What does this fold into?
Amino acid sequence: MSRILVIDDAPAARLTVQFMLEDCGHKVFLAGGGIEGLEQFAAHKVDLVITDILMPDLTGVEVINKIHEENEGFPILGITGGGDRSLSGDVLNEAHRVASSILKKPFLQEELMDSVNKLLVK
It folds into this structure.
């Protein structure tokens, strides 16, 4: 069992990922945005962070960069709608550069767990 922090401003997405992870035996911490996510990261020793890329307070790229400032190489899975017109190509390209892996929404539990398992064994 791993400890995983899920950061997503969309409650339905956040709870869906939580259910998928808990169904596979993981302990999950939740945050509704980037600022809260960084607070949760500081408060809990987690093995992996899953963060949405496009959020209103801090983008997922900003969250990833802040975590990596003091935790270089920490595994982070970025999740994104990808086709969202408000998500510029620059932000998505930067997300691919800084995240350990990117998963496009919607995804199946098997796809999520495959990505999670790959990042946890590194």
Summary: The chain has five helices and five strands. The helical segments are 11-23, 34-43, 60-70, 89-98, 109-120. The first helix runs from residue 11 to 23. Residues 3-120 form a domain with the Rossmann fold fold (CATH 3.40.50.2300).
